Amino acid sequence: MYQATAQSVREGLVERWNDTYAHFHKENPKQAYYLSMEYLQGRALTNAIGNMGLTGEYSEALRSLGYTLEDVMSVERNAGLGNGGLGRLASCFLDSIATLDLPAWGYGLRYKYGLFKQGVDKATGEQLEYADDWLEVGNPWEVARPQVSYPISFYGKVVNGKWAPGKQVRAVAYDSPIPGYKTRNCISLRMWDAQPSAVEFDLAAFNASDYETSMGPTNLASMLCAVLYPGDGTREGKALRLSQQYMLCSASVQDILARWKERGNSDWSKLHEKVAIQMNDTHPTLAAPELMRILMDDEGLSWDDAWAVTKKTVAYTNHTVMPEALEKWPLDLVEELLPRHMEIIKRIDEEFIASAAKAKAAKAAKKDDKKKDDKKKKESEEEKPAMVRMANLCCISGMAINGVAAIHSEIVKDFTFNDFYKLFPEKFQNKTNGVTPRRWLAFCNPQLSAVITKWVGNDKWVTDTDELRKLAEHATNPELQAEWKAAKLARKKICKDYIKKVTDIDVPIDSMFDIQVKRIHEYKRQFLNILGIIYRYKQMKAMTPEERAKCVPRVCIFGGKAYATYTQAKRIVRLINNVGSVVNNDPEIGDLLKVVFVPDYNVSLAETLIPASELSQHISTAGTEASGTSNMKFQMNGCLIIGTLDGANVEIRECVGDDNFFLFGITDPEVEPARAERAAGKFVPDARFTETLEYVRSGVFGDKFEELLGSLEGNEGFGRGDYFLVGKDFASYLEAQERVDVAYADSMGWTESSIISTAFSGKFNSDRTIDQYAKEIWGIKPCTVPERK
Ligand code: CRA
């Protein structure tokens, strides 16, 4: 029934899709291309019928056949071709691009296996990983286009200024339709699959039974699209990752230029008037040198002409300031894999250095500055082996460089890329992230949406989220409050049933649902959350039954995957699970505290958890989380946030007001001094912190978690000096949690804050973000597909 439903929906989409392509072709507008190694599309069915405005019709039709839409849609596999926020952002952007009728497309890779499926070992609490064979039963949303295919070359050498490649595969297009909401526009997400190139297949070797030789190209092709982010600990792993990135860039650039020609364009100096390429983080950086190579080596442009137009065509979004995530590749590896590109990169580098030196001389630099710059230059020259730093290449080639939240964009200018900022301040921008209100409110939370539509007076808020503000006028109205609470309760019930089904834990529905879901990472500080829970548990244990009865009951829910080789993150998962086993089975505590780790966090699980949330935790060390996007989804769904002044939290708090945000922790400028204080041995932890660590060490939760606790201490043994400052923020975190408890006890006040949260979430609509990209970076305008006559 799922397959049949999906096929019928697809049929409806294909007409819009073809019309959109034909219309763009006819109008020949400037078009933007979003290049991303990750997309987290989640399920497509509900979204497609919702965007087409056919949810009622499909529910009805399925019911008449003896099915429910909920059951049918839940059969669909999640398309999980990404890690976390960056991948989901790309998917939200596609929804907004289509909804705003913008001429833009997405490009990605069609990985055979998505991000791993996560399980939890019942006995040890450890994370288990399984391959996610998401294509196992086929994907009704994609259309294979074997006629759209490009050669992708690797290795070999440069002969007379041109590349004579050593190996080749073919990139084949698989397209998925992305319908906009209440519009006929339907754009494409084109994902490349790697196929062996027939010319390379050694038939003679095969017939001589030398299968290893003959299957070489086939194996290379299947490796290229096997998984997202293969381990890159070895040189082979690095070569594979870089090859994947190159395949995305080369296939996409070839395709973009072919379309540009197909639409009758021919003046290369005006390419940027028709094409903008957005590089989603540094993974697609090679788009710039690939464009240069094609323009010069295939189209015959001079270096200067090719460079002039490339610089106006590509743009770069930075998503992280964590130094270990700023990609660099060994120069000799790039040289071996992509010899012609390495030549181009070297020349870009040389010309940049020369022009920067000139600019500096012209400024007759202030002496201090010069000293600092000289020192930096020395450091970079001394790096061995030599590296190609992708973000630097992006900053030099890009027409625009943007961060993803206001505070992050400032950090990018002041620290991460300060040298580049000084040279080209005009390139630097901010584009605060957003999320699509269709998937993340209208479709995932029909209960709350119905209440919103009633009180706002219409459903225009589904696109124009500023309309949500109208809710604020009624935030204290008992009638709205009652409906609001009923909607929340309905969602908590659905969530409770889901938790029971997957973990067998019974959670009480009248408790506060407190949720932290995101990748498990030390900087996101799930560790701080669980230590806070441990402290709470310890306190409760010490209370008399009368005192205990006054506690605000909580269900603390965690979800998220730890990267397979990230040991410390995996220990955090184990600690959470072990704490859960003890707390959830403690008869003294009963329903007052539950700790749940819901396995296999993905888009669909988020759609179940977020509508049920009352409190959510966004508690990264200040200055480390570029933006966060789940904070926006929680806010839209009337959830209050406990958080630090980090990423988009800062702007969310500005919107909802400090009364409706539980702020704690040190600020970004206080972080380095706090680290210095620790390093100098001057930090005195709060007694509650020390007690909590001792409590874990006493073995209450089975294992003593020495390696984990040690990371919060000195620099000896396991000690890493608490780099993310869990100890520093612990007291402030506990105090904020006390404020949460007090606030929750006042049910009317809490509901008012919840309504206010939704009411002022309008800014975090990805339509707003995309509108800014379109106007301020891409220079594209809506191109609306007319109704069929
Ligand atoms: N991990 C940031 O850390 C941000 C998203 C989307 C991240 C998040 O704070 O919300 O990007 N960065 O902008 C990233 O992937 C490579 O860097 C993320 O998802």
Automatic annotation (TrEMBL):
Transmembrane segments: none annotated. The modification N6-(pyridoxal phosphate)lysine is found at residue 633. It comes from the Eukaryota. The keyword DNA repair does not apply. PROSITE patterns: PHOSPHORYLASE. Residues 365-384 have a biased composition (Basic and acidic residues). InterPro entries: Glycg_phsphrylas, Glyco_trans_35, Pyridoxal_P_attach_site. Pfam families: Phosphorylase. It catalyses: [(1->4)-alpha-D-glucosyl](n) + phosphate = [(1->4)-alpha-D-glucosyl](n-1) + alpha-D-glucose 1-phosphate. One of its GO terms (biological process) is glycogen catabolic process. Its cofactor is pyridoxal 5'-phosphate. Residues 363-384 are annotated as: Disordered. Its EC number is 2.4.1.1. Belongs to the glycogen phosphorylase family. Allosteric enzyme that catalyzes the rate-limiting step in glycogen catabolism, the phosphorolytic cleavage of glycogen to produce glucose-1-phosphate, and plays a central role in maintaining cellular and organismal glucose homeostasis. This is Alpha-1,4 glucan phosphorylase. It comes from Ostreococcus lucimarinus (strain CCE9901).
